[in-house]
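Sample intake sheet
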Amino acid sequence: MSLACSRSLFFMAFIAGALALGVSYYLEYSVGLHPCGLCLLQRICLALLTGISLMASVHGPGRFGTFMYWLLGLCCTLAGTVTALRQVLLQSGPVHQLSNCVPNLAELFATTPWMLVVQQMFEGTTECTYISWTLFDLSIPEWSLLFFVAMMILGVCQLLRLVWVACRRPLSGESSHRALVGD
Protein backbone atom coordinates (compact mmCIF):
# COMPACT_ATOMS: atom_id res chain seq x y z
CA MET A 1 0.00 0.00 0.00
CA SER A 2 2.85 2.41 0.71
CA LEU A 3 4.17 2.07 -2.83
CA ALA A 4 0.75 2.88 -4.25
CA CYS A 5 0.57 5.88 -1.94
CA SER A 6 4.00 6.98 -3.11
CA ARG A 7 2.93 6.62 -6.73
CA SER A 8 -0.09 8.86 -6.17
CA LEU A 9 2.12 11.41 -4.36
CA PHE A 10 4.41 11.47 -7.38
CA PHE A 11 1.38 12.08 -9.59
CA MET A 12 0.18 14.93 -7.37
CA ALA A 13 3.69 16.43 -7.44
CA PHE A 14 3.58 16.16 -11.24
CA ILE A 15 0.21 17.94 -11.37
CA ALA A 16 1.43 20.70 -9.03
CA GLY A 17 4.61 21.16 -11.06
CA ALA A 18 2.72 21.20 -14.35
CA LEU A 19 0.33 23.83 -12.99
CA ALA A 20 3.24 25.96 -11.75
CA LEU A 21 4.95 25.66 -15.14
CA GLY A 22 1.69 26.57 -16.85
CA VAL A 23 1.35 29.68 -14.68
CA SER A 24 4.93 30.72 -15.46
CA TYR A 25 4.37 30.34 -19.20
CA TYR A 26 1.04 32.19 -18.92
CA LEU A 27 2.72 35.08 -17.14
CA GLU A 28 5.46 35.18 -19.76
CA TYR A 29 3.44 34.84 -22.97
CA SER A 30 -0.01 36.21 -22.08
CA VAL A 31 0.77 38.86 -19.48
CA GLY A 32 4.08 39.83 -21.06
CA LEU A 33 6.48 39.40 -18.13
CA HIS A 34 10.02 38.61 -19.25
CA PRO A 35 11.91 36.13 -17.04
CA CYS A 36 15.42 36.94 -15.85
CA GLY A 37 18.23 34.41 -15.63
CA LEU A 38 17.32 33.30 -12.12
CA CYS A 39 13.70 32.85 -13.17
CA LEU A 40 14.85 30.62 -16.01
CA LEU A 41 16.98 28.55 -13.62
CA GLN A 42 13.96 28.13 -11.35
CA ARG A 43 11.89 27.06 -14.34
CA ILE A 44 14.52 24.48 -15.31
CA CYS A 45 14.50 23.07 -11.77
CA LEU A 46 10.71 22.97 -11.83
CA ALA A 47 10.66 21.23 -15.22
CA LEU A 48 13.14 18.62 -14.00
CA LEU A 49 11.08 18.02 -10.85
CA THR A 50 7.92 17.72 -12.92
CA GLY A 51 9.56 15.27 -15.33
CA ILE A 52 10.95 13.14 -12.51
CA SER A 53 7.53 13.06 -10.83
CA LEU A 54 5.85 12.03 -14.08
CA MET A 55 8.39 9.26 -14.69
CA ALA A 56 7.98 7.97 -11.14
CA SER A 57 4.19 7.97 -11.30
CA VAL A 58 4.14 6.15 -14.63
CA HIS A 59 6.97 3.76 -13.75
CA GLY A 60 5.65 2.71 -10.35
CA PRO A 61 9.02 1.56 -8.99
CA GLY A 62 9.81 -0.64 -6.01
CA ARG A 63 11.27 0.62 -2.75
CA PHE A 64 14.76 1.34 -4.05
CA GLY A 65 13.43 3.03 -7.20
CA THR A 66 11.01 5.10 -5.14
CA PHE A 67 13.89 6.15 -2.90
CA MET A 68 15.97 7.17 -5.92
CA TYR A 69 13.10 9.14 -7.50
CA TRP A 70 12.47 11.02 -4.23
CA LEU A 71 16.20 11.69 -3.92
CA LEU A 72 16.37 13.08 -7.49
CA GLY A 73 13.30 15.19 -6.84
CA LEU A 74 14.84 16.47 -3.61
CA CYS A 75 17.97 17.52 -5.51
CA CYS A 76 15.83 19.48 -8.00
CA THR A 77 13.83 21.14 -5.25
CA LEU A 78 16.98 22.02 -3.34
CA ALA A 79 18.45 23.69 -6.44
CA GLY A 80 15.17 25.52 -7.05
CA THR A 81 14.99 26.63 -3.42
CA VAL A 82 18.51 28.04 -3.49
CA THR A 83 17.81 29.86 -6.76
CA ALA A 84 14.50 31.31 -5.56
CA LEU A 85 16.02 32.32 -2.23
CA ARG A 86 18.85 34.11 -4.03
CA GLN A 87 16.35 36.07 -6.11
CA VAL A 88 14.27 36.97 -3.05
CA LEU A 89 17.44 38.21 -1.34
CA LEU A 90 18.37 40.22 -4.44
CA GLN A 91 14.92 41.81 -4.48
CA SER A 92 15.20 42.84 -0.85
CA GLY A 93 18.76 44.15 -1.07
CA PRO A 94 20.25 47.35 -2.50
CA VAL A 95 19.99 47.60 -6.29
CA HIS A 96 22.96 49.92 -6.84
CA GLN A 97 25.50 47.11 -6.24
CA LEU A 98 24.27 45.00 -9.17
CA SER A 99 25.34 45.28 -12.79
CA ASN A 100 23.03 46.92 -15.29
CA CYS A 101 23.99 45.03 -18.41
CA VAL A 102 22.10 41.89 -19.23
CA PRO A 103 23.83 39.78 -21.89
CA ASN A 104 21.77 37.58 -24.15
CA LEU A 105 21.62 34.15 -22.54
CA ALA A 106 21.91 32.31 -25.87
CA GLU A 107 25.14 34.16 -26.70
CA LEU A 108 26.40 33.68 -23.16
CA PHE A 109 25.85 29.91 -23.28
CA ALA A 110 27.50 29.72 -26.71
CA THR A 111 30.67 31.54 -25.67
CA THR A 112 31.08 30.73 -21.96
CA PRO A 113 31.23 27.47 -20.00
CA TRP A 114 27.88 26.74 -18.38
CA MET A 115 29.20 26.89 -14.79
CA LEU A 116 30.40 30.45 -15.37
CA VAL A 117 27.01 31.34 -16.84
CA VAL A 118 25.25 29.98 -13.74
CA GLN A 119 27.70 31.88 -11.53
CA GLN A 120 26.95 35.10 -13.43
CA MET A 121 23.23 34.47 -13.07
CA PHE A 122 23.61 34.03 -9.30
CA GLU A 123 25.53 37.30 -9.03
CA GLY A 124 22.37 38.90 -10.34
CA THR A 125 21.52 41.93 -12.39
CA THR A 126 19.09 44.77 -11.88
CA GLU A 127 16.65 42.78 -14.03
CA CYS A 128 16.38 40.20 -11.22
CA THR A 129 15.31 42.83 -8.67
CA TYR A 130 12.22 44.15 -10.47
CA ILE A 131 8.95 43.13 -8.87
CA SER A 132 6.51 43.40 -11.74
CA TRP A 133 3.71 41.14 -10.48
CA THR A 134 2.41 40.17 -7.04
CA LEU A 135 -0.37 38.01 -5.67
CA PHE A 136 -1.38 38.46 -2.02
CA ASP A 137 1.62 40.79 -1.70
CA LEU A 138 4.10 38.03 -2.64
CA SER A 139 6.29 38.33 -5.73
CA ILE A 140 6.85 35.52 -8.23
CA PRO A 141 10.19 34.43 -6.65
CA GLU A 142 8.53 34.32 -3.23
CA TRP A 143 5.76 32.08 -4.59
CA SER A 144 8.41 29.96 -6.25
CA LEU A 145 10.31 29.69 -2.98
CA LEU A 146 7.14 28.59 -1.15
CA PHE A 147 6.46 25.95 -3.81
CA PHE A 148 10.00 24.57 -3.71
CA VAL A 149 10.06 24.50 0.10
CA ALA A 150 6.73 22.61 0.13
CA MET A 151 8.05 20.09 -2.39
CA MET A 152 11.28 19.76 -0.40
CA ILE A 153 9.33 19.03 2.79
CA LEU A 154 7.31 16.39 0.92
CA GLY A 155 10.48 14.80 -0.45
CA VAL A 156 12.25 14.75 2.91
CA CYS A 157 9.19 13.25 4.64
CA GLN A 158 8.91 10.53 2.01
CA LEU A 159 12.63 9.74 2.16
CA LEU A 160 12.51 9.52 5.96
CA ARG A 161 9.44 7.28 5.74
CA LEU A 162 11.21 4.94 3.32
CA VAL A 163 14.30 4.79 5.54
CA TRP A 164 12.12 4.13 8.60
CA VAL A 165 10.31 1.27 6.85
CA ALA A 166 13.61 -0.19 5.67
CA CYS A 167 15.07 -0.06 9.19
CA ARG A 168 12.03 -1.75 10.72
CA ARG A 169 12.01 -4.57 8.17
CA PRO A 170 13.23 -7.79 9.79
CA LEU A 171 16.41 -9.51 8.71
CA SER A 172 15.99 -12.55 6.50
CA GLY A 173 14.65 -15.54 8.36
CA GLU A 174 13.18 -13.54 11.23
CA SER A 175 9.49 -13.14 11.80
CA SER A 176 7.98 -9.71 11.32
CA HIS A 177 5.59 -10.34 14.23
CA ARG A 178 6.76 -9.95 17.78
CA ALA A 179 6.38 -13.01 19.92
CA LEU A 180 4.06 -12.65 22.87
CA VAL A 181 5.50 -13.27 26.31
CA GLY A 182 3.03 -16.05 27.00
CA ASP A 183 3.83 -18.01 23.82
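Comment: The first strand starts at residue 134 and ends at 135. The domain at 2-93+104-165 is CATH 1.20.1550.10 (Bromodomain-like).
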